[in-house]
Write a structure and sequence with these properties.
This protein is α/β, with parallel strands linked by helices. It folds into two domains: 113 residues, Rossmann fold (3-Layer(aba) Sandwich); 190 residues, NAD(P)-binding Rossmann-like Domain (Rossmann fold, 3-Layer(aba) Sandwich). 37% of the residues lie in helices and 15% in strands. It contains twelve helices and twelve strands. It is globular, with a radius of gyration of 21 Å. The two termini are 26 Å apart.
Length: 326
């Protein structure tokens, strides 16, 4: 059967698809495939292996034609796909959650927390630019993480793994807000479920782990920043639009928070939505920016590739997917 992959991914998944006897075409350039080329490439496909940078909607489904039965998204999230349009056409949508991916994102999340607390990027820049002329007891003093309070907004798999690192490794206290209770976190880490408002008022490190839905867009905005302590740090490795970027800029200018670390951006791939503000987000020394690489490890990328391939192989055989998007 005919499969189109919208961008080069780890070869393990591609090899699995070809070994299963399918005809696989991969867009050869390391870039977001232009829309016109995508519409042409999917014509007559039985399956599409998409990336989170591809907008998959009814236009794509119509261009592919009636043979299309699965879109396997190479991502844990699937906000780039119109699920309702897929449902109407009886097209299966899958994603690629796995423990390896979760561990990678959790590691990156905690690395950002540490970097904020100990001012690692500031210190690196300071040393590399010849500013270090001798030790000083006041030079680039940061803050301890030991015994501080970590607040999870969203206590799913990734947030939980980050929490284990904080509690077990740094003796951090743990609070969380979520629609449902996480009894495992409560039992094993002594976590306490609180309201989001209470969490924002209390936590020293606030880490976001929610999917992007209309209800979570700008979940953190002006009123939320006003609740946070001036010594608190915000970390976002979920989806960019969860944080209101203009509100974040204002909070940083007004010193309402101590700093922020972002792996995702509201108008991604742009680092800043409003070019008229001269990319102010880049100018804060207490802001760390990484280019959506939280899951960027060899192990995670291989796993994602193979999960996407397994989903396609299963559905094209008439079976059920391993990880249906829901």
């Amino acid at each position: 059967m005919k499969i189109f992959v919208t961008r080069k991914i780890h070869e393990s998944g591609i090899n699995m698809l070809r070994k299963a006897g399918h005809k696989v075409t991969v867009y050869p350039k390391d870039e977001i495939i232009p829309r016109t080329k995508l519409l042409k490439a999917v014509k007559g496909c039985d399956a599409i292996l998409s990336l989170l940078t591809d907008k998959i909607n009814d236009e794509i489904f119509a261009a592919a034609g009636p043979k299309l039965i699965i879109v396997a998204n190479f991502a844990v999230g699937f906000d780039n796909i119109d699920l309702e349009a897929a449902k109407k056409r009886n097209i299966t949508i899958t994603n690629t959650p796995s423990d390896k991916v979760n561990e990678s994102v959790a590691e990156h999340t905690f690395a950002l927390m540490l970097a904020l607390a100990r001012r690692i990027t500031e210190a690196d820049d300071f040393a590399k630019h010849g500013k270090y002329t001798g030790w000083s007891p006041t030079l680039l003093t940061g803050t301890d993480m030991h015994n501080k309070t970590m607040g999870l907004i969203g206590a799913g798999r990734i947030g939980s793994m980050a929490a284990f690192r904080g509690v077990k490794g740094f003796n951090m206290k743990l609070i969380y807000s979520d629609l449902k209770a996480n009894k495992t976190l409560e039992k094993e880490l002594g976590a306490k479920k609180v309201s989001q408002a209470n969490l924002l008022k209390t936590a020293d490190f606030i880490s976001l782990h929610v999917p992007l839905f209309p209800s979570t867009r700008h979940l953190i905005s002006t009123s939320e920043f006003k609740l946070m302590k001036p010594t608190a740090f915000l970390v976002n490795t979920s989806r960019g639009p969860v944080v209101d970027e203009k509100a974040l800029l204002k909070a940083l200018k007004n010193k309402q928070i101590a700093g922020a670390a972002l792996d995702v951006f509201e108008c991604e791939p742009a680092i800043d939505c409003d070019l008229r503000d001269n990319l102010e987000l880049k100018k804060f020394s207490n802001v760390i920016l990484t280019p959506h690489i939280a899951s960027a490890t060899q192990e995670a990328r291989r796993d994602m590739s193979e999960i996407a391939a397994k989903n396609i192989i299963a559905v094209l055989k008439g079976g059920k997917p391993l990880t249906a998007a829901k």
